[in-house]
Amino acid sequence: MNLSLKFSLVVVLLLAVTLGGTVWLLPDHPGAPAAILAVLILWTFHRLAGRRLERIAKVLEGSAATGGGSGRIGDGSRDEIGRVCAAFDKLAGELEAERRKAEDSASSLEGQVQERTRRLEEAVRKLEEASVQKGRFLASMSHEIRAPIGAILGYAELLEDARTAPEDHRQALVSIRRNCQHLIDLVSDVLDLSKIEAGSLEVERTECSVNQVVKDVISVMSVRAHAKGLRLEEAYLTPVPERVVSDPTRIRQVLINLVGNAVKFTERGMVTISVGFTPCEAKRGRLEFRVQDTGIGIPKEKLELLFRPFQQLGPSTARRYGGTGLGLAISKQIARLLDGDLTVRSEHGLGSVFTFTARCEVAAGTPVHARPSAAVLADSGRKTLRQGARQAMPRLSGRVLVVDDGTDNRKLFRHHVESSGAEVEVAENGREAVERARAASFDLVLMDVQMPVLDGFEALREIRSLGIKTPVVALTAHAMKGDRERCLQAGFDDYVSKPVTKAALLEKLAAYLPGSRAQEAEP
Fold it and tell me: HEC profile for 268-285?
């Protein structure tokens, strides 16, 4: 029995007792009607208050059933019950707001969980794709490395055979050199990619001839093109400055990669390098190189894969044409470092057009020609001759200490230096180098960095501690960014990275040997 019913029964009982007693005991008493009226007022008040309390009870029960805040009493009176109802409605509103806030928070949290789950699934998918790409790359890289090494070993065995004719010897040496160059290019690509990913690949800004860069590329790639019966031509789309300020080495690298791919994937027809120039602000402009071929073309669905590292058009294409899928990815990044871009248009079966752009500055006092004039070509030819003269084997003089723990390297470097006219002594490690430098005077020390017993850095410190000021050139197989700086900071006078050609080695040594001169040496 609830409170309202109990209260009603009490009021009814009191009313009955009061009314009955008044009528029975004092029927003629003048206060009898007033008592009856008071009882009726009490009864009316009770009914009204009871209904309000009953409504309050129902709202409270509903709120309890739904977790609070779902109902309002809505009693607008200002008496005590009204104030209680107003306080309850306010509390219910606050509870409702908190409930909605909690629901929104839960919904947001659920959304975050779903988003993170989606990202995790995407990351797992990309990781799986990367793993597959890594496997393909390693397989391709293994093939690209093992194939030239196999050729080198095979031709080396051929040279060891006393029955091999001298002409075969020459062909074997050419093949060995070509395959070694392939390995060097492959390592360079991997190093460039590592530098790009580390954000440490740098470009230089130097004055150069656009025409000469194109001529160099055609000169390098013409043998490969002619071997396949292809025409390799150049064309000029617009007037081009004779000389600009940019990075000719990186531009040449990109063009050689693009032309090499064009020749590789073209069986008949031609490959064209087109050059254009668009002036921008004062003394600045944009170079544009288009490499167009009549090759197999690229399906539209494969175009997006071209500029991704380790990606190729497919296993069959990789098996037929070879390659690691690094060249275009590296070229794309180089183009961006040159404030340009590398794009492609292609139609399957009809060929491709790669467009490479690069920002540049026009060299001071440089005219712009629609096509290089005879004077420009003659100047380029004289420049080529001057470059050739600088590349000729210099004659050396003086005494050189060659320090390397590799027997073959010591023999090779000794042969190069002695054949150019200098006297040579050798040491197998850093400790022996220190002792020889203490016992005799040398004009130059060529020292490997990584050696047993005492490495190049420690040996240099001991040599300098003896007061010996002889120039020391570091010789190392490390070629990453920072290796040169590390050697120079350690006190080496210069730096040469392996592998090094004879011409590059002798040119470096000639800069430190007194009396050396640039002229043709005996091969």
Answer: CCEEEEEEEEEECCCCEE
